[in-house]
Amino acid sequence: MANDDRNTARWVDDHLAGLDPGADWNPDPARGLARLRDKQRASRRHRMEWIAASLAGAAACVALVLFQSPGACAHPRGCPADPGPAPAPVVNFKEAGSAAAPVVVEIYTDFECPPCATFYKDTVPQLTDQYVRTGKVRLVHRDFPLPIHAHAREAARYANAAGSLGRYDAVAAELFRTQPVWSRDGNVDTQVAQVLTPEQMQTVRSLVRAGAAADDQIAGDRKLAARDRIDQTPTVVIVTRGERHALNGTPRFSDLRAYLDQLLVR
Amino acid sequence: MPTQPEPFDFDEFFRAHYARIARTIARVVGDHSHAEDLAVEAFWKLWRTRDAQGENAGGWLYRTAVRLALNDLRGSRRRTKYEQLVPSGPKLPNPEEVRAAAEEREQVRRVLAALSDRDSELLLLRASGLQYTEVAAALDLNPSSVGTMVSRAQQSFRKEYLKQYGER
């Protein structure tokens, strides 16, 4: 009996030992702490914004109660015009095309996945020319770095960091173009440096090191991917009339065109 | 005269435990970058939970880290379909061996995901090198019963593994 237990223990230990991440990987506490600091700062900022919004709301309620009498707005100049909601000048660097486009095409990719590189080089330009530039489709890039690819997440970090400088497209194109090189030697930085100025590169490196902003983008996309039940890359999700449809497999442009044309004539 | 408890130095605690926590999580999720994300998440939870910042902060953190990792593993099982289909990259010296090892790791993770939380936690904390007393502290167990519980967890693991994959 005791022998059986010992054998089982050894058998289980052997199987679990295979999960050891390897002695050559040493997580860097300094980098981890920097990312935690970012999270803490973001949390404090969020709390302050929430408090400020609550106070502003409370003040607005008080003002409404105090000044809601007939003629309160009967000033010769009239009531101050309602400024309405502030315009949102935020431009998401991972989106292209008209916000009013009837169809949104979301593409989940992994920078280290060869079929994604092919899709990006062959299909995306045609999609952009024929549907995005014509206002029929809004295109959204989403990150889905797969755990089997050692450098995919780092590549996504670089692309997102470059995106904050308005250079997402250039870096994404370069990463897909040079994928066979950096996926082999792991040197994402060198490839990205080919399309950015030294000053831009410096900013990108510091953003990648800090991690938080670029990682938030990836985490957001991964949450959506879980909802869309994505399990491979590239995956195209078509969003129309409030519904999301993930297409099976990697569509050729001709199939995608037929599908989109069908949706657009409805 | 009662002694004042030592003030909790969060940064020092972070530096002392971060690498080990990240490595424990990496056993479960595989991807190193993602393991570091989850490790930061575990410390973030500790930072927000003042009550946990004390003598047993280590135990609390390991328990939280393992639970985060197991939840992530169970939530991301769909991805394994793709992982099984895609061969290893060309940079690897012997793709067949590497692929077999990766497949074996995925099978072990699937079995861990299928076990009860308690069994998976016990096995992972033991495999990460924690002593029985540390495991007991982390999971709030009686130290004298940890050995028996680990043994039962090992039997459950073997049974589930053989059920899913048979004897190799």
Quick rundown:
The complex is a heterodimer of chains A (266) and B (168). Chain A is an alpha+beta fold. Chain A has helices at 2-17, 29-67, 114-122, 124-132, 152-163, 168-177, 179-185, 188-193, 198-210, 212-227, 253-265; strands at 95-96, 103-109, 137-143, 235-240, 243-246.
Tell me what the structure shows.
The complex is a heterodimer of chains A (266) and B (168). Chain A contains eleven helices and five strands. Chain A is of the alpha+beta class and 266 residues long. In chain A, strands 1-3-2-4-5 form a five-stranded mixed beta sheet, sandwiched between helices. In chain A, a hairpin with a 2-residue loop joins strand 4 and strand 5. The radius of gyration of chain A is 25 Å and the shape is globular. About 12% of the residues of chain A have low confidence. With 168 residues, chain B is mainly alpha-helical. Chain B has eight helices and no strands. In chain B, helix 3 packs across helix 5. The longest helix of chain B has 23 residues. About 10% of the residues of chain B have low confidence. Classes of the chains: A alpha+beta (266), B mainly alpha (168). At the A-B interface, helix 1, helix 2 and helix 10 of A face helix 1, helix 2, helix 4, helix 5 and helix 6 of B.
